[in-house]
Amino acid sequence: MSWLQNSNYSVQNTSSRIQATIVFAFLVMMFLFLLAPIIIVIVMSFNEALYLSFPPKALSLKWYERYFSDPIYLHSSWKSLIVGLGAVASATVIGTMAAYALQRFRPPFYGFINAIILSRHCYPVSSWDCRFFIR
Predict the structure, then answer these.
(1) Distances (CA, A) of 28 to 22, 32, 37, 121
(2) Cα separation values, 71 from 75, 90, 119, Å
(3) Measured between alpha carbons, how far is 111 from 71 in angstroms, rounded to an integer?
(4) Do 57 and 48 form a contact (C-beta atoms < 8 A)?
(5) Taking residues 18-26, what's their average pLDDT?
(6) Are residues 49 and 107 both part of a single domain?
(7) What domain count does the chain have?
(8) Is residue 65 part of a domain?
(9) If DSSP codes are grouped into helix, strand and coil, which group holds residue 47?
(10) Does residue 107 sit within a domain?
(11) Is-cis flag, bond preceding 55, omega within 30?
(12) 111 and 93, same domain (yes or no)
């Protein structure tokens, strides 16, 4: 029971609570920052006006009716879904096989291969992504 009498315990406990609260607040703000554009687009998709106006003057499903009644949109959506599912399936299979092979057999230059694979996660903006910003 001597830990109850230790004054540092309450200070450390309070400090860790404050740190946890700050981290939680930061995470909530980050998720709101990331989700806000999606929520705005969903809300604005029910706008009846031809042009973007906020707040919406009237709510309507006319854009959804137009989308689902046009066979060109539906056909291209199905094509996109098929291509996306194929990409997900092939990336999952290839990635799983590569991870298994790298872990099981430890080929020469394992560190270099692992660094190349993981470098995309370390540097989210690569020179390939910067091509959109260079004019």
Answers:
(1) 10, 6, 15, 22
(2) 6, 28, 42
(3) 51
(4) yes
(5) 88
(6) no
(7) 2
(8) no
(9) strand
(10) yes
(11) yes
(12) yes
Helix boundaries (H) for the chain: 2-5, 7-44, 62-69, 71-105, 110-122
Mean pLDDT in residue range 73-87: 96
Q: Are 117 and 99 in contact (CB under 8 A)?
A: no
Domain interval for residue 41: 1-60
Q: Is the pLDDT of residue 6 over 60?
A: no
- Of the three residues 60, 79, 96, the one that is the final residue of a domain is 60
Do residues 48 and 5 both lie within one domain? yes
Average pLDDT, rounded, for the chain: 81
pLDDT interval class at 45 (50, 70, 90): confident
Do residue 20 and residue 74 come from a single domain?
no
Inter-residue contact 110 to 102 (CB < 8 Å): yes
In order of 22, 28, 112, 121, 127, the CA distances from 12 in angstroms are 15, 24, 42, 34, 44
Assessment of whether the complete model's pTM goes beyond 0.70: no
For residue 129, which amino acid is it? D
CB 48 within 8 A of CB 62: yes
Q: What is the pLDDT of residue 69?
A: 93
